[in-house]
Design goal:
- The protein is built from six helices and nine strands.
- By secondary structure, the protein is α+β, with helices and mostly antiparallel strands.
- The protein has a domain of 136 residues: 3-Layer(aba) Sandwich (Glutaredoxin), CATH 3.40.30.
- A hairpin with a 4-residue loop joins strand 1 and strand 2.
- It is globular and about 55 Å long.
Length: 200
């Protein structure tokens, strides 16, 4: 079995056939092309179309997609369903009316497997969220089991933190950090003095 890409590693280039709800047409997502545009990529794997928790998650991300785009992100949801099923599901499921980001098709499970998000026992993707920076490095990874939905607000927070840190690599973001809050500058002076640094 191929090894999954790990956080900190560069993601091999891949492509996915997609349904683009914003343009109501089929197209192709290419990681290489997105990297060349200087964009971040967020991949949102989920078990399947016409299921139950999945439309609530995709709708949640849809409501925050503009904020994500403002951080320079291309969002792609991914399941093993075909692009044709994505189109039909988007047209039929009312929860998906705000979904304007790309809906990717991974029929062989190859991309899901690349990220360690494929449940080999069922052939379905788990609820995996992966953040890839413009250099192609995997900087964020989260996988939930089938019965637990994710939180798009937290994804937006992570993306704002990641884009801030990309511009300020000498800093670090503490727990629950949000834009405008204090960051940390790791070094000898900070050892054992984190509370003091955050208080001032």
């Amino acid at each position: 079995m191929e090894e999954s890409v790990m956080v900190g590693q560069v993601v091999p280039n891949f492509s996915l056939e997609v349904y683009d709800p914003a343009k109501t047409m089929f197209s192709t997502f290419s990681l290489e092309k997105t990297r060349n545009m200087g964009k971040w990529t967020v991949l949102i794997f989920y078990p399947g179309d016409y299921t139950f928790v999945c439309p609530t998650e995709l709708a949640d991300v849809g409501r925050r997609n503009q904020e994500l785009e403002e951080t320079g992100v291309v969002v792609v949801s991914v399941s093993r369903d075909s692009k044709f099923v994505h189109l039909a599901w988007h047209r039929e499921e009312k929860l998906l009316k705000e979904v304007s980001y790309l809906m990717g098709s991974d029929p062989t499970g190859q991309v899901s497997r690349l990220f360690g998000a494929l449940d080999e026992s069922t052939g379905l993707a788990l609820r995996g969220t992966f953040i890839i920076n413009p250099e192609g490095k995997l900087v964020g990874s989260e996988i939930n089991f089938y019965n637990l939905g994710r939180n798009a607000e937290e994804l937006v927070r992570k993306m704002k933190a990641n884009t801030y840190l990309a511009k300020h690599p000498e800093e670090a973001c503490p727990a629950n950090w949000s834009s405008g809050q204090k960051t940390l500058k790791p070094g000898e002076a900070l050892v054992g003095r984190v509370a003091d640094a955050l208080a001032h």
